[in-house]
Amino acid sequence: MHLHAAIYGAAQTSAKLLLVMAIFVPLERLFAARPQKLLRRAFFTDLCYYFIGSLIPKLLLIVPLSLLAWAAHRAVPGGFYAQMAQLPLGLRLIAALVIGEVGYYWGHRWMHEIPALWRLHAIHHSAEEMDWLINTRAHPLDVFFGRFCGLMPIYMLGLAQPMAGKLDVIPLLFALIGSLWGFFVHANVNWRLGPIEWIVTTPAFHHWHHTNDGPELIDKNYAAMLPWIDRIFGTHYLPRHLPAAYGISAEMPDALTLQIIRPLQFTPFPAASADNTKEESLLGLAQWTPGPRPQCATIDQ
Questions:
Q1: Is residue 169 included in any domain, yes or no?
Q2: Rounded to two decimals, what is the model's pTM?
Q3: Could you tell me if residue 196 is inside a domain?
Q4: Which of 24, 66, 168, 181 is least enclosed by beta carbons within 10 angstroms?
């Protein structure tokens, strides 16, 4: 029985990959923001990350989300969750997307501001070329933390009802929409969508999140789907042009096993110097202290 479930899960994951590939590979050939090869550097490593990220974070989320739902249903009056359960599915989904996005925004921002989390998240930012598959390049613990931050407020506010005795599709839809949108915003396409960019995130918006054009331009555009959340918290940046460079200043090992293991090797850092960067903290070379946050949102359209 377990073997059949594993085979079915692998087939489902592979089918999703083929579907996404069938959509984005032609789009990137037709509307490429930059010319690059389909089988670029680390393409097969990112394929491995796709399958790792499709399995391990789900398993890691089972226990904490179950405990969170159990604790919330005992701490909050039952009538509140009963009222939330009566809301139409579409309204609950919209509310979950907004509330979950706020949770994810702060989880993502903490990944950049807390050195221990940056060690994990830097793997995702190590990509020096952008395409749809970069969405999957992430340490499994990084994926787990981001999803937990997004799902936690959804569970706490009763927008997901895991204790109702039946399958609740809200967490599934939240994860599915977020995953598909993640492929889109990483895609190597030259689209600019005008006023729509004020409402939902686009490739141009997220490409600036991956920039390596200078320290004054990094750590912006944390939102996954709703860019106006970055406007509210002062981290929005979207000029007319795309970044000139992507990636991080530190070197990332090519071997997948080293990428997975190295961030978990928490050896003491040497004393920090004035010119240390947060990328160096990934390599255990220095202690990184986040700089001041941007004070205002900007856009040039």
A1: yes
A2: 0.86
A3: yes
A4: 66
Residue 15 falls inside a structural domain: no
**Alpha-carbon separation of residue 39 from 54, 119, 151, 288 (angstroms):** 21, 27, 34, 34
Residue 80 amino acid letter? F
- Could you give the number of structural domains in the chain? 1
> Which one, of 234, 226, 222, 225, lies nearest residue 299 by Cα?
234
Which tens digits make up the pLDDT trace of 172-200?
999 999 999 999 999 999 999 999 999 99
Report yes or no on 17 lying in a domain: no
